[in-house]
Amino acid sequence: MRKLIFVLAAIGLLAGCAVAYLSGITQPPLPPAFNPAANPYSNGIYAEGIVESDQPSGENTNVYPEVPGTVKQILVSEGQEVRKGTVLLLIDDSIQRATAEQLLSQAQAASTLLAELKAQPRKETLDVAEAQVVSAETVLKAAQDELDKQQAAYHLDPKSISKDALDTAANAVATAHANLDVARSQRDLTKAGAWTYDIDNQERQYNALCKSYLSANALLSKYTLRAPRDGVVLAISPAVGSFVSTQGAYDTYTQGMTPVLVLGSPHTRLDVRCYVDEILVPRLPNPCRMKAQMSVRGSNVKIQLQYVRVQPLVSPKIELSDQRLEQVDVRVLPVIFRAETSKNVNLYPGQLVDVFIGE
Q1: What is the CATH number of domain 45-54+265-358?
Q2: Interval 180-232: pLDDT, tens
Q3: Which of 75, 76, 83, 167 has the greatest CB tally within 10 Å of its CB?
Q4: Which fold has domain 61-92+223-264?
């Protein structure tokens, strides 16, 4: 029994020594997935950069609608190259289209009424006025003849005609004279046509309605978003049925307003916007001697950059996520470089990169 205990103890001791030996062996480290970015210049400075489209000025072209409404149709897709004037997106314009058509009908009605005023007098109306004058003349002649007969009879025999009948006949002649004057005045008024003030007023109403229609029609065209320039569609925020406004479209993920569409240049021409800390600005080389190298994060890709320009305005530093997280007032100077891409490198606008600037 003792022998067995000693044997087991020896085996345990040997097993412990083996475990201790194996545990002390150091495993060689795994090689890194990619080499960390290193400064290739002896006195180079580091700057954080973001890839953007190649623009003569500014950044990407953000497209916003000038009118709010519901997206009716999207006619392009992300990554598609478009020409200036290409229809990108349609917003529901049913209400504005009805308003424009209503104003057009009102302008046409005003034009018809203006033409009617200018065409006066109407021949049929003038014929009626002339007939009324002839009728009044006939009535006057009949009343005058009746008065002459009664006056002749009165002169032959004053008792044959009463004074009342004679006065009645005289009144009838005076009334016929007055009616004839009214008929002639009405005929002259009809023959003169529309009053110039009425024509001028109608012309102004017609012009006002025409301008209202042109304004409504111009606003109607705003419901169709067109490409402001040649470029590539980088992003489309809304979907069909989404509501957009002049502030853009609501982004579900960021819970903020974003541009409806973003246009950039083809990916063969990309820029890198670097934000150089203000304390490093005095160390920037002269532009004619400036060189830069970009390292793509997550890879060993390094790309030489070509100096383009400096945006000569030192502005407050913000995180590239558009969130102000700095606790102090740190300012940066934007420097823009151009990157020549190749098919073997995947670069997209908005991608963060590391940039080293030297000479």
Answers
A1: 2.40.30.170
A2: 899 899 988 888 888 899 999 999 999 999 999 999 999 999 999 999 988 88
A3: 76
A4: OB fold (Dihydrolipoamide Acetyltransferase, E2P) (2.40.50)
